[in-house]
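re: ur question from earlier - yeah i can do the single chain one, its not a big deal. heres the input i used so u can compare w yours
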Amino acid sequence: MSHPVASRLCKHVLAVLCCLLALSSVQPAHALQKATVQLKWLHHFQFAGYYAALEKGFYREAGLDVTIVEGGPNVEVEKQVSEGKADFGVGTSALLLHRAKGRDLVVLGQIFQHSPAVFLTPRKTGIRSIADMAGRKFMYSNQHGDMLALLKKNGIDENAIVQVPHQGDPRDLINGKAEVMIAYSFNEPFILEQAGEAYLTFSPLTYGIDFYGDNFFTTRKLVDERPEFVKAFREATLRGWRYALSNKAEIADLVLAKYSREKNRDWLLFEANQMETLIQPDLVELGYQSPSRWQQISEIFTGLGMLPPGSDPSAIIYHPKTPKDYRALLLTILVSGAIIAVLASMMLTFRRLNLRLHAEIAERTQAEEELRISEQKYANIFELMPDMVGITRLADGCFVEVNRGFERCTGWKKDEVVGRSSLDLGLWDRDTRARAIEIVGEKGHLEDFDFTLTIKSGASRHAVMFLIPITLEGIQYLCFLARDVTEQRMMQAEFLKSQKLESLAVLAGGIAHDFNNILTAIMGNISFARMDIDESHAAYPPLARAEKAVQRAAELARQLLVFAKGGQPVKKVVSLRQIVDEAVSLALSGTNVQAVVDFPTPLHAVEADEGQISQSFHNIIINAAHAMPGGGKLTVHGENVVLNRDSNPGLPAGDYVKLSFNDEGRGIPEADRSKIFDPYFTTKEGGTGLGLASTHAIVTRHGGQIVVESAVGKGSTFTIYLPSLGKAYSDQSSEGVPADAGFRGGSILVMDDDDMVRDLACLTLKRLGYAVTTCVNGDEAISLYASARERGAPFTLVIMDLTIPGGMGGIEAARRIRAFDPEACLIVSSGYSDDPVMANCGEYGFCAAIEKPYRVEDIADVLRRVKLKER
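and the output i got, formated as tokens:
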């Protein structure tokens, strides 16, 4: 049975606890505390953790209203923070130098365990060493202490270089504005490579300078005066970094959407992966700072004369403040006093006897500890470097030591490697090793040596190596540092490829505009001539064949645009049977492949871009013909289907037309089937890898789906689903040009910069019974339209060219006409078949669109459709 006094005491304690809990639950919410973070450079994935903490609400949850300020080449982050213009900043190991100048700064957390900073210089400058940089034009920034240390170590003072403005643009190296710049290893060098500029990089790591990279810091004053504010910011920031490294794709999209569109998504993800090797979150806790590492950095600065002797770096490390317990302090003082009093007499007795022994032990202990720290320090640097680092004997090439980076990159474990040579492991071939050793013999070292690395799995990787000979206990060794640059080179290649495609898109647009104007004149005049003769006339078949040839030329121009740019389809109701028949006839002409077109029932109509859909069918049929070089049969089967979510979860439920193209060719290996729709993937010699990729893009843009089934030796079947209108196709074209087509008897204004197109439009429309006025640009069209309206004889409609080189085009002219006549009937015309205005003309104020080149029948058809809308 419990004691009554103890029972009452427990009740009182519980009552007090309940009161405290009740009081804490009704405390008023505090307003958010404002905080400013000054970045050291322009917005990049480099600062992903701060973006994540802000955008995911981690700062707000910590009671902070944070503003992130973009940095740049002229921003002194340390000055901004020390002068109170920003609460927190992103810095580097150079903070030790700023503390020595009187700025009492504190590092709250370390993010990058290694610095990515390098010196970057074009080979054409003739610079081959750090010493060569003296007197050269240098895009320099004092944000990186390790780079200043690298200069000092090589005997170069900051005053010995010619500093030019650092705008962060490596193209200044190409045009000669600068000869050297401070850059990041995973960023600026690629811009030089894409420009075809050969370059060299000099990394502090190669010279034994391994400093911390990015950290975040504040002032000692802020830590002392607002400890909870600082602690909350630190915890929310580290939480943001953990989230950013675990969700790189999401944060890359965030950077593109809200901070910077300077780089594309793939490049940002590449940066993220490269950063992770420098941050090393799996090996080192985010935010952790090693006192011994700071001591090492301080010693390097001191040894180079950048810090005074005896500098203590420990004050730079942040330690959260805890509330002082004065009762515990008083108790400690009392107990300590008692102990001191007891020990004082003992110390006086033994002091003389132990003094000499203590000195000897202290001296030996200090020496052993310094040796242990030094060995551990360099062992940690060796093991934690992300690159492949190791030591081999010069005589036989056998490995003596390798680091974790070597194990990770090659797949070989240390115990599998030590005692064996690189040739035994097949890492490179004998000639490559001999060439590397020869260069070391000539120059005394090896740098930026490109070679093909064969890893344990047998895969080949592209690598760059640095090699330095060393002698230990009379034995010659080679110390190497190699970096796997395969992904970097692939990224460069893809970037260059995308630039070429962008250039092709510009070229294709210009070709389409001029070429389609010419084709319009040819096709229109042919169709005009056919109107005056019947089918029995001897000239009718040649004219029909010529018109068909022009249509094929127009298709080629349209395909060029789709290949280069893609583009939204310009849809109209079409007959897939007719498109399939024409594609089969055209693609299989001159081959020994037999085509069987099997459509048991009339296919439903679909809304599609006739040119793009024809191209997609053409690509599949051409591939089938190539798969059957000795001849065979291609079967095209079509049917109307109704899909639901169960029958095809990849498409919305509804009416579709299903087309299957089955060949008797070689078939597609299983390993290739998942890649056949990828851009640039091809199994054909001389193939571009664009055919099926563009087919997939076209079908997808039409709301459809394409799938493939294949087996080696049994042929392939490509199946396409396209949304249908649920009813059979009805030909409502204007063949024969009915007498009541369109606005017969009205007046039409035609705006086009091409003389032949204007002449054709005038001839055609007059033949159809219209009064026609023509002009060459938007300014003239607006003036003519306004004048006719003021005279009380407004134009019935206007046909406007979308693009007028050097003048106002259709979009702007339509906007201005609609401003004073909202009921104006406007039709847009263009050879840019992929332009979004053509696909969505109504959104730009047009009633209809007509694609160049066009026939008389096409003009009549679009006028008829506009007339039907007006009714």
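The chain is about 45% helix and 20% strand. not sure if urs matches, ping me
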